[in-house]
């Protein structure tokens, strides 16, 4: 008879093993990792350079575009990292390895947690890369101090987890690598319809209302606050609640879509 | 092989190439969706930017300002399709079968270049119609619209010719697809979404040297200030130089592949 605690320990080991497998694959296939590091770096350079004058408009509360765009590039990199678990799963589904994992004594939660763990760990690399480029090459500021860095990493990891769960749901439903294109369209549309590049005060028309109620807006504000000023609970709380709700929603979505792998 | 046979063969292969594109909506749908999404988002986010003191145009909306850039962005993303299909032909050995038949060698290249041009033409027309529906203005009317469609289709063929050269060289769809970020970089480090006058330091300097900036700025003159032969010929001249270089490179790569095959 296996005790509950032994069972829990073995499932945790499965989660860790799946995370490690993803990271090992990433190390052995650098072509998978390079775009997810290079693109966020390019985003911070391009957005800070192209839109360097937009900070003159109301609502930006900074005199350097990089302070505004760094958080946006970090979250884009994290969202891209969130695709990692989905990509790995789609490949496994196409070559039949996923069926063998499902035939093993692994709970769906352990399997999904391992894939999310891989995406979340992967998100640390582009976040660090963007921060290094922002501070070394683009002269960014962090008035929020150490807490500003901590909240930026926390937000990046949270977004990677949410996007990973969301993408897994799509991959479980469509069971093909091509589903990643659909996931990207939905994922990046959601990100763009927020305060990623401009504050609410600067946005006009329909986008103002969409961005105002988009939960990603609160999450971005939470991650960005350290670049613009002190880290406060008033700015953190809405982001934290939005992130928690997004995690619950995307987790339920991924778990319910997992059933579709059988169909 | 004389020209009497080459033209019908090129037409047949072009027809096949265009049909192949139409039947893969997953390839062309994103190239329409993303420019429209960016246009909708930027027009709402940066609408107040037209009031900045150094903004080069007066009495325009931000949607009018980014119209040519979004059409160019769309056709450049779409220009990868023709090369990807050629790489697929090489990967699945259709190219080998084509080469073992008495088909004119030049028609292989002409077919892919013409499909890139036609795809750009259709895509630019659709994008301009959607922009109109959402309130964008073209000061020069039909002549400006036609000039924009022609210039962007021509650019699609020019950039497509470089991608076709890479497809011929590598024979890999993955490699051709991985070039997408390079196109993205060229678009963003240009005056596509914001005027160069409002960019700071080295970034603004690089954007100023980017040939895409020259094409976009002259195209923008046509759409905002009205049709002018001067702006049209300057934009067309830059695109012609890009196309000649691209066609020369792809012809060289085709010859190289033929030499390897024989």
Order of helices and strands of chain A: HHHHHHHHHH
* Poorly predicted ranges of chain B: none
Give average pLDDT of chain B, whole number. 88
The largest sheet of chain A, given as strand count, sense and whether it forms a barrel, is:
none
Number of strands of chain A: 0
- Overall number of structural domains of chain B: 1
Strand content of chain A: under 5%
Q: Which chain pair shows the most residues in contact?
A: A-B, 32 and 31 residues
Sheet having the most strands of chain B: none
Assign an overall shape of chain B. Answer: elongated
Identify the quaternary structure here.
heterodimer
Overall structural class of chain B, as computed from helix and strand content, comes to mainly alpha
State the low-pLDDT regions of chain A, or none.
none
Q: Which structural class should the secondary elements of chain A be placed in?
A: mainly alpha
Provide the β-strand percentage band of chain B.
Answer: under 5%
Topology:
The complex is a heterodimer of chains A (263) and B (262).
Chain A: H1 4-28, H2 30-50, H3 65-95, H4 97-103, H5 108-136, H6 145-174, H7 179-192, H8 206-213, H9 215-228, H10 233-258
Helix pairs in contact in A: 1-5, 2-3, 2-5, 3-5, 3-6, 3-7, 3-9, 5-6, 6-7, 6-9, 6-10, 9-10
Chain B: H1 3-22, H2 25-45, H3 62-91, H4 94-99, H5 105-133, H6 142-170, H7 173-177, H8 180-188, H9 201-209, H10 211-225, H11 229-261
Helix pairs in contact in B: 1-5, 2-3, 2-5, 3-5, 3-6, 3-8, 3-10, 5-6, 6-11, 10-11
